[in-house]
Structure of MADS-box domain-containing protein:
Amino acid sequence: MGRVKLKIKRLESTSNRQVTYSKRRNGILKKARELSILCDIDIVLLMFSPTGRSTLFHGQRSNIEEVIARFAQLTPQERAKRKLESLEALKKTFKKLDHDVNIQDFLGASTQTVEELTHQVRILQAQLTEVHQRLSYWSNPGNIESIEHLRQMENSLRESINQICLHK
C-alpha cells in the first residue's frame, strides 16, 4: 500500500489515531536523537500516546532536571517570545505544504503578544499597589490622610457586610 498524504488535523478515529502515533513515534525519536548528536544540544522529549502512555527521550548528555531548570529560568516574556517565533515558523511550514491549519488550534484561547501581556502586568501591579495602600489604612490608622480614605474604608465595610449577609 502506498503512502497517503494526510491533512494535518486531529484524526477522528481513536484506533487510527493510536496506529498513526505508534508508527510516527519512532520517527520522532530518531529525529530527536539525530538532532542531539549532530548539533550537540540538550534535548528532552516527553510524549503521551492517545491512550495516555508516556514516552520519554533525552539526549546522551541531557539531564532532564537540568533542562527543565534552564527552561524555568527563562522570563515569561522570553517564553512568550519563543512561543510566537515557533508559531510563526509553523505557519510558514504549513503554507509551504499548502495545508489548511488553524494556528488557533495550537494556541488555545490566548494569542496575546508580549507587549499586551506586559501591559496587563503593569495594570495588575498598579491595582495591587492600590489595594495594599487601602489595607495599610486598616493596620495603621495614622496613614489616613483625607475624608476620601475614610469613605473608601466605610464602603469596603459595607461591601463586606453585604457579602456576609448574602452568604447567610
DSSP finds six helices and two strands in the chain. The radius of gyration is 26 Å.
